[in-house]
């Protein structure tokens, strides 16, 4: 590879962290800075680099990200184009997302779950205070570090919170989100508010202790209809170390009707801080998932969606703008 091919702007692409359906995420070094600072670059894949909708989504992610400044959220620093490749410059953090950290089951994170859940909730709460609804809360969109520090990422389909009269005229152009974590109202293309993110966050909490999402389906539609009508599972069924109080809290978050969920992430945090997750304190595993950094492990990893879930099909992803 020629030297210039390794660069985007002043950034030398040092290592590929992940390939998604539309973007590659690279660890990159700013060779012009005196301390050779490292960043994460989210670069549109060559096949998407001139797709108008993808370009708009990347710009949107930049606009959302630059309005957010919290230690619980990955900083979005710049939006640039070089050699025909549009990209975002992001704060570099642990390359292990929560889904990868759960790959060997919930025990990997169990011993520091209080910290992870609290920080994950704080990131989401902060976003809500800035009047954004994330709309794609899932384990893949949280990065987790070895010490449990957790940050929220991926604002591609975030929407401004609607209030007053604009609520009345809301009609979703397309249904967007990730099937395993989508609230009933999001599936139906109705207006989403904080409580839609709380539903998805409830699904994430379920998975953190149960090791699998609350609903699975034989087909994408089967999975969606379970969110709409199936009875809400308790994580205790999959992990008998989970307390009834915590299980009940997750079940309330996954209530079909938004009114039956906690009103805000703040309400959730208040309750969570007064709740024990585990009956017995979990042990620190002998082998840490962080010693075997998930990132790029195999060719299979490169093409499959990281969660192996069905995302709402590419067509709708492309239509979102
Ligand atoms: N700032 C970052 N630092 C380290 N790894 C990151 C960073 N941002 C993203 N990643 C990795 O890249 C993956 C995909 O990033 P994401 O922004 O969610 O893109 P996509 O829109 O393709 O889902 C994440 O799940 C994570 O593993
Ligand atoms: Mg993502």
Automatic annotation (TrEMBL):
An example Gene Ontology molecular-function term: protein serine/threonine kinase activity
Q: Give one Pfam family.
A: Pkinase
List the CDD domains.
STKc_PknB_like
Region: Disordered, residue numbers: 289-321
- Limits of the Protein kinase domain: 11-273
User: Per the UniProt record, which EC number(s) apply here?
Assistant: 2.7.12.2
PROSITE patterns, per the entry = PROTEIN_KINASE_DOM
Q: Where is the signal peptide?
A: none
Keywords, sorted A to Z:
ATP-binding, Kinase, Nucleotide-binding, Serine/threonine-protein kinase, Transferase
Q: Where is the composition biased (Basic and acidic residues)?
A: 298-321
Instruction: Give the protein family.
Output: Belongs to the protein kinase superfamily. STE Ser/Thr protein kinase family. MAP kinase kinase subfamily.
Could you identify this protein by its name? mitogen-activated protein kinase kinase
User: Which organism was this protein described from?
Assistant: Rhodopirellula sallentina SM41
